Amino acid sequence: MLSWSQAFDDPEVAAAIWHIFAPANERNLDWLAEVVGAARRVAVKVSRGGRG
Question: What is the mean pLDDT, run by run of 10 residues, along the chain of 52 residues?
Protein backbone atom coordinates (compact mmCIF):
# COMPACT_ATOMS: atom_id res chain seq x y z
CA MET A 1 0.00 0.00 0.00
CA LEU A 2 1.16 3.49 -0.79
CA SER A 3 -0.12 6.69 0.71
CA TRP A 4 0.61 10.28 -0.12
CA SER A 5 0.49 13.35 2.03
CA GLN A 6 1.00 16.83 0.69
CA ALA A 7 1.37 19.78 3.04
CA PHE A 8 1.29 23.50 2.37
CA ASP A 9 2.45 26.25 4.67
CA ASP A 10 -0.58 28.32 3.73
CA PRO A 11 -3.97 26.56 3.88
CA GLU A 12 -5.49 29.24 1.65
CA VAL A 13 -3.00 28.39 -1.08
CA ALA A 14 -3.78 24.69 -0.71
CA ALA A 15 -7.51 25.37 -0.99
CA ALA A 16 -7.02 27.60 -4.02
CA ILE A 17 -5.06 25.02 -6.01
CA TRP A 18 -6.69 21.82 -4.71
CA HIS A 19 -8.57 21.41 -8.01
CA ILE A 20 -5.21 21.25 -9.82
CA PHE A 21 -3.03 19.07 -7.64
CA ALA A 22 -5.63 16.56 -6.39
CA PRO A 23 -6.42 15.07 -9.83
CA ALA A 24 -2.77 15.32 -10.89
CA ASN A 25 -1.67 13.40 -7.79
CA GLU A 26 -4.34 10.76 -8.47
CA ARG A 27 -3.11 10.33 -12.06
CA ASN A 28 0.50 10.05 -10.87
CA LEU A 29 -0.39 7.45 -8.23
CA ASP A 30 -2.43 5.46 -10.78
CA TRP A 31 0.53 5.54 -13.16
CA LEU A 32 2.88 4.44 -10.37
CA ALA A 33 0.58 1.53 -9.52
CA GLU A 34 0.67 0.43 -13.17
CA VAL A 35 4.47 0.62 -13.30
CA VAL A 36 4.90 -1.28 -10.04
CA GLY A 37 2.38 -3.90 -11.16
CA ALA A 38 4.19 -4.38 -14.47
CA ALA A 39 7.55 -4.69 -12.71
CA ARG A 40 6.08 -7.23 -10.32
CA ARG A 41 4.72 -9.30 -13.22
CA VAL A 42 8.13 -9.26 -14.90
CA ALA A 43 9.86 -10.25 -11.65
CA VAL A 44 7.47 -13.18 -11.17
CA LYS A 45 8.00 -14.30 -14.75
CA VAL A 46 11.78 -14.12 -14.38
CA SER A 47 11.70 -15.96 -11.05
CA ARG A 48 9.76 -18.75 -12.78
CA GLY A 49 12.39 -19.01 -15.48
CA GLY A 50 10.33 -17.11 -18.03
CA ARG A 51 7.43 -19.59 -17.92
CA GLY A 52 4.54 -17.22 -17.37
Answer: 84 95 92 91 81 58
